[in-house]
């Protein structure tokens, strides 16, 4: 009988376990980055359809409380959605008319004040001020060239105004349908979700929408208070173009940090040029006081239920949004990031809950085995 030698252990893994884990994570990161890149490129290519959808989602998040109250009062969902859209058109149209009229009436005065401020800085600081004076003097030409460059990049045969009107109409129609059929969104997601993932997908969508809803409502409320306070302060200081500058503050509030800095800088420069150094310091004090009120009182109070993001994340997000889609990217970057943060938070919560249930199940099984023994 021939002796058989026991087989020894097989060869070990080629790479250590930490290296294999790192390689797996690198593959996941590259895969996710590739998917995100392809998605961004597709959104850029189909921006005429994608941008209205995103704007409609933001509008739905902002207007849903009004629609919900109308439905709660017994109004039919379609009529409530139509009334909400008509009210929004009336309010936004009136506000745009007031803001545009104020900017048109005070625009020349603001540009003249900025030019005077540039000359004052040129006299005080030499070459740096001269550069600022050149920018202020050539501002209309620069804007015209920028507009011409932007117009040349639009799809052939479609003007900038026509495309903007088409996108606005499409976004308004989508807001109507989103408001009317919002209660069916959960069933629609469950219908297209793979087996076993319907609850998770619906929870992720709800968390993302609630994050965007909180961001839009909170930002609008804060922007309104900021613009009213800044306008009142500038009117008291008798700064020219106070209403237009307040409107600029309101619009800039939707671009965190960067918008407040730019609108505040314009207000201070206008005050410096037209009212002198002392009034400019008072205007700077008004801007700083309003920003302190926003940062220490309004944001913690109003946006305490929304997704909080670190300022560094916000700045990187704004830069990426501007590089991808310009001004529209600046407006959409933060709410989309808030939605993504809400999705990540929901996934982490579910993962931690699953781990806790698994540990509890293992502990219960151990106790049962000990009792049987």
TrEMBL record:
It is a multi-pass membrane protein. Residues 354-373 are annotated as: Disordered. The chain crosses the membrane at residues 22-40, 46-66, 78-104, 154-179, 214-237, 243-269, 276-293, 313-340. Keywords: Cell membrane, Membrane, Transmembrane, Transmembrane helix, Transport. It is found in: Cell membrane. Belongs to the autoinducer-2 exporter (AI-2E) (TC 2.A.86) family. This is AI-2E family transporter. The lineage of its organism: Bacteria, Bacillati, Actinomycetota, Actinomycetes, Kitasatosporales.
């Amino acid at each position: 009988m021939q002796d058989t030698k026991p087989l020894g252990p097989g060869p070990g893994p080629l790479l250590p376990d930490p290296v294999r884990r790192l390689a797996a994570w690198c593959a996941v990161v590259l895969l996710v980055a590739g998917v995100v890149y392809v998605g961004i490129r597709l959104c850029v290519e189909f921006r005429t359809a994608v941008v209205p959808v995103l704007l409609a989602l933001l509008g739905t998040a902002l207007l849903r409380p009004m629609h919900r109250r109308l439905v709660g009062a017994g109004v039919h969902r379609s009529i409530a959605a139509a009334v909400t859209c008509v009210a929004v058109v009336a309010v936004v149209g009136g506000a745009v008319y007031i803001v545009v009229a104020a900017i048109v009436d005070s625009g020349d005065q603001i540009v003249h004040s900025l030019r005077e401020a540039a000359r004052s800085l040129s006299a005080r600081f030499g070459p740096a001020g001269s550069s600022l004076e050149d920018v202020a003097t050539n501002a209309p030409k620069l804007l015209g060239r920028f507009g011409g460059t932007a117009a040349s990049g639009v799809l052939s045969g479609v003007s900038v105004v026509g495309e903007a009107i088409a996108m606005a109409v499409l976004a308004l129609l989508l807001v109507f349908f989103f408001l009317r059929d919002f209660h069916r969104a959960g069933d629609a997601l469950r219908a297209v979700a793979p087996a076993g993932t319907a609850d998770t997908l619906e929870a992720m969508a709800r968390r993302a929408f609630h994050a965007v809803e909180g961001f839009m409502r909170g930002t609008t409320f804060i922007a309104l208070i900021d613009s009213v306070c800044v306008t009142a302060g500038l009117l008291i200081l008798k700064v020219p173009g106070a209403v237009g500058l307040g409107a600029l503050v309101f619009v800039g509030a939707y671009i965190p940090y960067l918008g407040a800095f730019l609108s505040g800088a314009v207000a201070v420069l206008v005050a410096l040029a037209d009212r002198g150094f002392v009034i400019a310091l008072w205007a700077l004090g008004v801007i700083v006081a309003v920003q302190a009120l926003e940062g220490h009182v309004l944001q913690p109070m109003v946006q305490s239920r929304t997704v909080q993001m670190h300022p560094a994340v916000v700045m990187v997000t704004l830069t990426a949004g501007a590089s991808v889609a310009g001004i529209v990217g600046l407006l959409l970057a933060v709410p989309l990031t808030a939605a993504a943060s809400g999705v990540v938070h929901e996934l982490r919560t579910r993962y931690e809950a699953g781990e806790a249930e698994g540990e509890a199940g293992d502990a219960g099984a151990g106790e049962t085995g000990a009792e049987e023994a």
